[in-house]
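the two lines:
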Amino acid sequence: MRCNQSVFFFLLTLSFVTPFSSNAQSNLQPTNQESDDSASPTTSVEWLKRLQSLITSANYQVSFVQTTVGKETVPYLWRHAVLDDGTKVEQLNLQNGPGRELIRVDSIVSVFEPDTQPYSIRSRFINGPIPSLLLHNPETLLQSYEFVLVGRARVAGRPAQQIRVVSRDNTRFGYQLWLDEESGMLLKLNMLDLQGGVLEQIQVSAFTITETPSVYFSRINQSSLPDPITMPSTQSRAHGWEVNYLPVGMSEVKRDTRRLALTGQVVEYKMFSDGLVDVSVYVQPAEEAIGGDIALRNEVSTFLTLKAGKAQVTILGEIPLQTAKAIATSISSVSKNND
Amino acid sequence: MTQQQEKLSAFMDGEVEDDKIIDAIKQDEELQAKWQRYHVIRSTMRKEASVAPEMDLTASIAAALDNEPAIVAPKTSRWRSIPVLGNVIPFAAQSGQFAVAASVALAVILGVQHLNQPAPSEPFTTAPTAGPQGGLAPVSLEQTRTLPRNDMNEVLAKKRKINALIADHEQQVKLKQVQIDEEEKVSEEPDRP
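prediction for all of em together
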């Protein structure tokens, strides 16, 4: 109630002429005017832009936990800072057990894991439990998902704005996120199945936004970080099959032919992504593959494998089973001579 | 009899004034039982019953107590009353239990090893093994014995194939951003050497 009043007041003072009820659904239309940072955002897209500007330009430290169905809760520490020379540094540390540390200096991410030589890769984001596109480039998600401003709530002891994220064709899992009203920081993120059950949850327990970078980053000797490894771009022969059905907003991001690391089987591989979820499609000869139809749930991922003639098609990704099935059954061969 | 019942019922409702029914109840055990049941039923219907209808345990408990032989509390053993020895004995008993448990565990481990030995948990061959690839099937005396395990191997192989795909998917997801960025790097100038 209070929210509506303050929004109403805000609208009045700026003499907006938007209808009052559009508050809840107005995310569809792109924001015409450049949103002022000091003004309180009124649409879900403005809230996400505010989250993005905070995530990419502020000095902060966040403690959060990740809970997945059937798994133990995993605590993380996440720091970000913009150093005096403009370098953006970020750290993500798994707090339990032997741990796992990722340090990003601009667009190079160094990974420190137990039992593995530290290595660096070229990436603009740390690939953590929070979907990086949601934080860094939420506008790219708009073609696949609808962002609906729900209203006020209280999360982690702070007033928050709740936003629902729903796929436009209802073929993917939904999300709910809560942003701190004062700063715009992400406070909570739920991943929901189509029935509304929580599959995965990220809950911030504490966060601080500071003027100066954390002292932690001054202790990093940037020259001692491992050099980035270069990924050989694999040029592979054309696949003899094509996926004909994809959920709205999903597109192919990768295709190749290679051997699986664990079994050495040769697979033809395509990856599709909508920014929030990635779906892998594998096609291999049925006689050396599983050779049957299996559907199972691995944590929040769906694993579906179908035998279609001489080919075995496998779909893997954080999507509902019916969507995986729709993708799998839409695959058709392009040229008859293959497979 | 039915008249008595009716009277009893009327008396409970306060509609009978004469005292004859009280005497009748005093003398008739059956009527007494009815009297109790009626009261239980009435209080149940009024939802004030806190006892089940057959809950008159007093008589049976009294009877049981009469039959109970008197028990004299046993004295604690003299060994136990000496502090040191009293502690030693349970410890000895405990260690015996521990020894038994340990030997069971050992047997389990041995059993597992024995079971696992024939099934080769060989790591995946990524390259085809060079060697004679003729049409001769290897002859083995154990062939009949390994037959029942074939099914288990199949299940394991299936699991391994599933795991291989899941692991690969997870790796691809991890590396996706890297590739996208590397492709973009081609057009951008690198900010770090």
